[in-house]
Design goal:
By secondary structure, the chain is mostly beta strands. It is built from no helices and eight strands.
Length: about 100
């Protein structure tokens, strides 16, 4: 499971499941009572960030890819009844060490 950080663990309970055979990370976040307009989801190759801005509260959850992986451009997010589901493609980092030959 990928490591993650959150400002308030009780406020944004999150479940992560990495399916290495399908090269996908499934993320499910309980964001109730937030509406879809209160949420922002940003994804780069090295992190997924979910922010929830309510009138008097701000919550943030940052999730990184599984070890030795990065996120791809294959991504989808769906909000339904207080639950945010995000599916992100993953790919293994290639060994990029340079080999010198004589």
């Amino acid at each position: 499971m990928a490591p993650s950080t959150v400002t308030d663990r009780q406020r944004l309970p999150t479940r992560l499941v990495h399916d290495s055979s399908a090269n996908r990370l499934a993320v499910v976040v309980d964001v109730l009572p937030a509406t879809v307009d209160d949420l922002t989801v940003t994804v780069g190759s090295t992190q997924l960030r979910v922010t929830c801005e309510l009138p008097d509260e701000y919550y943030e959850r940052t999730i990184v890819p599984p070890r030795r992986h990065r996120f791809t451009d294959e991504r989808k997010a769906i909000y339904n009844n207080g639950v945010l589901s995000v599916s992100i493609g993953t790919v293994r980092w290639r060994d990029q060490r340079v080999t010198l030959t004589r």
